[in-house]
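Workshop exercise sheet. Pairs work together: one partner reads the sequence aloud, the other fills in the structure field after running the prediction. Swap roles for the next sheet.
Pair: D.N. / O.F.
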Amino acid sequence: MNILAFGEVMMRLTPPHYKLIEQTDSVDLSFSGTGLNIASNLSRFGYDSTVMTSLPDNQVGRAASSYMRKLNVIDTHVVYEGNHIGLYFLEMGYGGRPAEVTYLNRSESSFSKSHKRNFNLDKAILDADIIHLCGISLMLSESVRETTHYIAKKASQLNKTVCFDFNYRPSISNEKNHYWVKEHYEKILPYCDIVFGGIRDLTELLDFTLEEESTNLIEDLRVLSQLFLERYDLTFFSGTIRDYENEKQRLTGFIRSKKEGFLTSDGHELSILDRIGTGDAFASGIITGFIEKWSAEQTLRFAISNAVLAHTTYGDTPVVNKKLVEGHMNGNQNNLLR
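Structure field:
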């Protein structure tokens, strides 16, 4: 099974020991991005995973590509041009202080400046079984948006499975009006099979409404997810819900399946070392269940366990293996940590 992820690879700079930027004179450097996170996680689960992106034609770009290869991600569809990479500072949260992300140079990155002609798109799509796209790519630049729409349409025409993550970032699209953003999301959704998101994407971005609103988020999601699935003829719509119980943060997963209806997981109390990338871990779990043809229930249980474990590891990229996830799923994690 071959997975192709198209998206931006960024440099992450993290002050050590939960420090703020103004408190530190050193940072931990790594590379990440939704597509890279998902591709690397699926690679650890035993699937051939490729990232198609554009990196700067300098030592930084080559370092990013080397980092991808260390994650066992195939880089044959990486192109090198320009001088800049998108980067961000992550000030890690602690206690009641949330984590904070500060983006730099994103609009000038090699990926944001890339064009459809830069990539061997038809071959990359033809060689893949599953293509993953991210909503952020719709917001970065006109040329990247054009490439993203082309990939979705071409993949759908070739009967490839298209996965799409809403990943809506108001901070990136703050110069665009609501209807402009909605138009580009609505344009890509008919070509998609598996979509990741939440109730706010449906209500605030796509303007779905309920005939009778309730105070029960799960019930609202049950109704709206069905409408969403039917409108765009999707196979799965899935995501996570965060809430608090006894002052502890919990994570619950949901999935709306065309064949099996609406399911939610148990709520899992979280131990949080690093929250960034945990949504990508959940998405990787859902894609794994799709590949393995598991039931929606087993798929959801695997995905939420993968996301819970991702909170306990440092860095954006999920690094746990399938055996550990299955152990957490089945309550046997102590038997695996030896």
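Discussion prompt: The first helix runs from residue 34 to 44. What would you look at next?
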